[in-house]
Amino acid sequence: MWTVVWMTLVVLLVSALLVLSWAVRARNMQIWLGSYLRRRRPASVDGPVHVMFCFVDHFEPAWGKVDLATQRARVDRWCRDYRKLAMAHRDADGRSPQHTFFYPEEEYLEEHLEKIAALCADGYGEIEIHLHHDDDTADHFNATIRRFNELLHARHGALPRDPVTGQLRFGFIHGNWSLDNSRADGRWCGINNELILLRELGCYADFTLPSAPSDTQTRMVNAIYYATDDPLRPKSHDTGEPVRVGGSASGDLMIVQGPLGLNWRERRFGLIPRIENADVRRACPPTPARIDDWVRTGIHVEGRPEWVFVKVHTHGTQERDMDTLLGERAHAMHTHLETRYNDGGQYVLHYVTAREVYNIIKAAEAGCEGNPDSYRDHVLPPPPGIAAARAGQGRQGP
């Protein structure tokens, strides 16, 4: 009898392990799970924790290959409803929520960018660069980014110039998550030296990650780091050198990651945790529990744990998700941020754009302390459209 019991237990245990192994590999968790489990908890701090909340959007009006009327309706809804949403909320600095629109070069239409640029000039966000490409070459990539940089800057007042070199600077999100040719099958990029090319073109940081459950996800998680490109192999940003207080820029490109972890509250089959990858949409709304997890992840510059960066992402123009991103769910998200993480004692909330995230990171690296609101424009100024609007208003904006 006992033999049968033990054999049954062994079979059950082996079956559970096989199911677990299948679940891990089916979602490519073997890439990053070890790093996640070995992570160090953020150090405790004296005084308030400053929470930088950054919402980046893979903003694709033509998603689904829709007609112009549908694209126009998507952009118009964003420009109308986001104003209403943002006007109802403020951070510790009196700033409205900031939305960073990573606009895809291959979907460019002047009328869409005119509307989004006007929204940004009114104080609700900034425009950066998104790109989908496949089987590309270095020459074509360079020409594409240079052309789009100049177009955004000259026609839409986007992208700042470096005050030292005069070069246009931009943040980047790679389409299909495939930065530096990082898909195992080699699709949706084609360039193994993409980090070098981005640096040379003026990219100040990449904001693509996390990309789990895609196989493009890196081993390094929940980090802000410098990646060094190996032009002979893909996915050179798999690991890198953490940005730290007193350090300096190294390698080729700064990688700014959002929170990645395991969600044990919403287990599949009651056993397997879901992946928390900071994606916000109808199927995974920004609940208070998720927001708390994002903050607890504690992504920061090493040596400055009291400045926490929470970067979340979405694909904002998909109709099924717009009510979540522009309606009551979004209001509830900001209300929770403003009540739980803006008491002035334990927490101070700052709504920031991707460019401001970079500036505050560089300020931390330089040893700056105190209120990060002072460093929103630390090394890179606002783009010209926003700078002109601020000068005309005589204030920072909503």
Q: Care to describe what's here?
A:
The protein is of the alpha/beta class and 398 residues long. It has one domain: Glycoside hydrolase/deacetylase (TIM Barrel). 36% of the residues lie in helices and 17% in strands. The protein has eleven helices and twelve strands. The strands form three sheets. Strands 1, 2, 3, 4, 5, 11 and 12 form a seven-stranded parallel beta sheet that branches. Strands 7-6-8 form a three-stranded antiparallel beta sheet. Strand 9 (261-268) and strand 10 form a beta hairpin. Helix 3 runs parallel beside helix 4 (110-124), helix 4 crosses helix 11 and helix 5 (138-156) packs parallel to helix 6 (194-201). The longest helix has 25 residues, at 2-26. It is globular. The chain starts with a helix and ends in a 5-residue tail after the last helix. The relative contact order is 0.17. The model has no long low-confidence stretch (mean pLDDT 93).
